[in-house]
Amino acid sequence: MLDLTYETPKPKVIAGAKHDWELVIGMEVHAQVSSRAKLFSGASTRFGAEPNSNVAFVDAAMPGMLPVINEFCVAQAVRTGLGLKAQINLRSAFDRKNYFYPDLPQGYQISQLYHPIVGEGEILVDMAPGVARLVRIERIHLEQDAGKSIHDMDPAMSFVDLNRTGVALMEIVSRPDIRGPEEAAAYITKMRQILRYLGTCDGNMQNGNLRADVNVSVCRPGQYEKYQETQDFNHLGTRCEIKNMNSMRFIQAAIDYEARRQIGILEAGGDIVQETRLYDPDKNETRSMRSKEEAHDYRYFPDPDLLPLEIEQGWVDDIAAGLPELPDEKKARFVRDFGLSEYDASVLTAEAENAAYFEQVAEGRDGKLAANWVINELFGRLKKDDKGIDDSPVSPDQLGGIIALITKGDISGKIAKDLFEIVYTEGGDPAEIVAARGMKQVTDTGAIEAAVDEVIAANPAQVEKAQQNPKLAGWFVGQVMKATGGKANPKAVDELVKAKLGL
To answer: Is 30 helix (H, G, I), strand (E, B) or coil?
Structure first.
């Protein structure tokens, strides 16, 4: 990919009582489309509204109400497909998925089974510098979300909130290319990052705007390679689906438990039953929810109220022309143009807002120095104060000003940290603060030499030790910096100390 090359990580191996086993994982990510209106109605999608206040007649399944497709939601799905390097299908169609759901008044969900809007794509999942897994995307289809059942408001009754009913979802289905719990979490992290860069989903897992169904199976070493050669799923084990996961930590824990559960059954001579399971984080275990339905169980058929969706290539091309620079390309550019390590570039591009902030700081300045200050000083302090980059008290211009003063030699690294603290807590122009508070670094070699001579004259015993062990010269440097209030140029001090001691 661009200037960066990767090795494929080794699969996770779990030792059973009798054999070694490998994990095979596929993901179905449900991403709520960022839009102001729902997929088939004009009702608001605002989170946190009063229960049942964002409900149109279509959402409530009132008689005679017909769905009308939201063009913006379609554009968001196309945008997502383009961001995942996927095939955009110019003709797609909606189907009815029939099943009883207490918070889905229609009695069916409008989805896309046979003709999805987006076909095959791919996503590169970074595991470590120089190590990544290429995961194939099978399809992305649009569908409407269900509502929410509330069971803890009354001991005898359940309540239903239809605000979420009809909200547009993109179901992003991967191939079974993920090979361990850590990779699964990294896959969700990367998917969330891309969606947020594209602006097609806010990725808020706490609100349920991004959640995943995790399909887990185990196989003996060598079987997965046979599947890769033939694409025959018979080489893989029977999968079980863990439903509605919205935590990276719980995804990893659930996969690990489920894999070990399956291994125990297989090594005892049993068979894995394909089913849907739920993860209980309090007990750290998965439990059976229902037998796994197949497509025929839902009695899919084309939705008679919606014509096939036909879009033009020119419209797709216009959306493609407006795509932002995506994380992989941005990271490669940061490595190439700013000379950053792959790790630092990954940290800076994790969020689009962080990357934009860094670029403003680094413009016309030392990229590595800018990265160091953004990552270590700014991000560290924001994390301590539980703030995001949008809430940073230090603007890119202010931090860039501090870096400019370091580069010019006006302030030392120590003074720069003191200056950063002042700017962070009080604000102000860094150059003006340095001038007003007398923080400018002493570069006058005469003044520095006088301080060095004074420290050496006052410590004859230490001089003798340093001449026998040159590493002790650092003690003199520290004393001179202390005597000058940290304002002396450290490099000049070090050179003068060594010259005076004959080192």
So the answer is: strand
pLDDT at 2: 47
Fill in the amino acid letter for 119.
G
Rounded to whole angstroms, the Cα distance separating 97 from 300 reads 5
Mean confidence (pLDDT) of the chain: 92
- Residues 256/272, Cβ–Cβ less than 8 Å: no
| Percent helix / strand / coil, the chain, rounded to 5 | 40, 20, 40
Question: In angstroms, how far is the first alpha carbon of the chain from the final one?
Answer: 49
Give mean pLDDT, residues 370-375: 97
Q: Count other C-beta atoms under 10 Å from residue 249's C-beta.
A: 10
Asked whether 165 and 144 are in contact (CB, 8 A), the reply is yes
Amino acid at 475: W
Angle 248-267/181-198 helices, nearest 10 degrees? 150
The model's pTM: 0.87
* Contact in structure between 352 and 324 (CB atoms under 8 Å): yes
Does the pLDDT at position 337 exceed 80? Answer: yes
3-class DSSP state of 145: coil
User: Does the structure show a pLDDT above 60 at 194?
Assistant: yes
**C-alpha neighbours within 13 Å on the C-beta side of residue 180:** 14
Strands 309-310 and 91-92, by their bridges, are: antiparallel
On whether the CB atoms of residues 109 and 301 are closer than 8 A, the answer is no
Tokens at 151, concatenated: 């069971």
Residue 1's pLDDT is 43
Instruction: Report whether 259 contacts 279 (CB < 8 A).
Output: no
Separation CA 411–CA 430 (nearest Å)? 11
Q: Which residue is it, tokens 């206040």?
A: 53
Crossing angle (nearest 10°) for helices 352-362 and 342-349: 120
Does residue 180 contact residue 69 with C-beta atoms inside 8 Å? no
